[in-house]
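can u do me a favor
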């Protein structure tokens, strides 16, 4: 038996991508509400999304039906403190209290991500993550959330993918706030990492029983063959800030090793980012490392027009992401060899062109095969002795795929955005079996 007995088989979502109800019960705008227009096909936003805010009981019942052991979701800061700082909105807190209580009743472990990109718009007007007060803003918000949820929640995750909400949002203008200001990378990196450290302290103080994690992503290079040299070289590429602030090491090295790669420092134009005291805060102990992994990053191959992870006709998802199951194996291997923390796969999944078929069902054999391959690769890492505590598939349900709007579907559950009717896809039923047999049927 490979998967540990208490392996946390789960699924993940994020507040902005599913909740909708953006002006209900006191929530105010976040950066995506105000800034997505002009950057997303059809100017789509999360205004309605899956209207999860008004389908809470139904959605938890579906989680239960799939037999999920864990559910990773995020809290919408603008629901809790609508202006970003100041007044607390009890109705916003009540929604998440209801959610965690329903999960507990259903025997599903709640995993709370404190920030998955929905920054209150008022804070953006003050510079967002560039503002040196942003770590304090975040700390105050986290205090409110943890104070309310601590009795029900064991797993807290500070940030989801600073690689994206800074790396491709303040440079490259792909995500809100759609800026292309490389000079912002230094203040944003400082502030997000200090905010992470402050959050860790608050969680330890208010929830001493908690397991605290972090959910970055980043480029995972995979070796071009099985030789030790090729593996070492893929590892070096993975941890040398080759992809600016999208890089894997950029956001994890400081938190766990207390350092930056020289390429990151060069990019930020400094030789040091933190004082000694700030470093102590940034490296506050966490308990597990979450990681979101979808595909490998290709290396250039001499004499070939294809990178190492592609060939003519190689398999890709609907979003043209490579189907490269070895990426999950190497992610676990490289991350644990370097950081020595238990790993939680906080996201993994695929976009597919799912639709409701004539028989009223959603057949998604591509997703089943994708999950099967990636889970076998994960199992290989576990077999080799790597400590992996869980896997939360992205995503529980189809949702707002940020700058791509509603075009791509990642869910185990199909959502008809016209009627809000939910339909379990074949993959949900397949995953149910995987969970029920603890992966023995793979
Ligand atoms: C994010 C999710 C997103 C998914 C697919 C991750 O970058 O955390 O919010 O929907 O990948 O793009």
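np, heres the sequence
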């Amino acid at each position: 038996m490979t998967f540990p007995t208490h392996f946390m088989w789960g699924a993940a979502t994020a507040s902005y991508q599913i909740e909708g109800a953006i002006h209900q019960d006191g929530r105010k705008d976040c950066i995506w509400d105000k800034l997505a227009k002009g950057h997303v096909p059809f100017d789509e936003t999360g205004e309605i999304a899956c209207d999860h805010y008004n389908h809470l009981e139904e959605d938890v019942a579906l989680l239960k039906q799939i037999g999920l052991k864990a559910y990773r979701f995020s809290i919408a800061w603008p629901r809790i403190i609508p202006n970003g700082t100041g007044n607390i909105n009890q109705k916003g807190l009540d929604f998440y209290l209801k959610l965690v209580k329903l999960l507990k009743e259903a025997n599903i472990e709640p995993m709370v991500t404190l920030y998955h990109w929905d920054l209150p718009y008022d804070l953006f007007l003050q510079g967002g993550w560039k503002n040196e007060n942003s770590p304090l803003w975040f700390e105050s918000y986290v205090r409110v959330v943890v104070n309310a949820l601590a009795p029900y929640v064991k797993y807290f995750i500070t940030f989801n993918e600073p690689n994206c909400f800074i790396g491709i949002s303040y440079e490259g203008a792909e995500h809100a706030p759609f800026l292309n200001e490389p000079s912002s990378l230094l203040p944003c990196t400082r502030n997000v990492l200090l905010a992470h450290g402050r959050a860790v302290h608050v969680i330890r103080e208010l929830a001493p029983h908690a397991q605290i994690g972090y959910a970055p992503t980043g480029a995972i290079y995979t070796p071009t063959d099985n030789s030790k040299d090729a593996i070492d070289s893929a590892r070096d590429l993975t941890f040398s800030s080759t992809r600016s602030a999208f890089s894997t090491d950029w956001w994890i090295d400081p938190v766990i090793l207390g350092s930056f790669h020289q390429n990151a420092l060069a990019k930020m134009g400094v030789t040091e980012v933190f004082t000694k005291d700030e470093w102590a805060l940034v490296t506050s102990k966490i308990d597990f490392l979450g990681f979101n992994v979808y595909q490998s990053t290709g290396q250039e191959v001499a004499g070939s027009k294809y990178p190492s992870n592609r060939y003519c006709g190689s398999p890709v998802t609907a979003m043209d992401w490579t189907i490269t199951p070895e990426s999950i194996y190497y992610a676990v291997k490289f991350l644990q060899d370097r950081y020595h923390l238990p790993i939680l796969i906080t996201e993994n999944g695929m976009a597919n062109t799912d639709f409701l078929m004539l028989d009223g069902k959603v057949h998604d054999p591509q997703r089943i095969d994708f999950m099967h391959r990636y889970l076998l690769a994960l199992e290989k890492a576990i077999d080799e002795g790597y400590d992996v505590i869980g896997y939360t598939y992205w995503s529980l349900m189809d949702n707002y795929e940020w700058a791509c709007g509603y075009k791509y579907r990642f869910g185990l559950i199909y959502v008809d955005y016209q009627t809000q009717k939910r339909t379990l896809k074949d993959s949900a039923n397949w995953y149910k079996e995987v969970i029920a047999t603890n992966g023995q049927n793979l």
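Residues 187 and 291 are 24 Å apart (CA to CA). hope that helps!!
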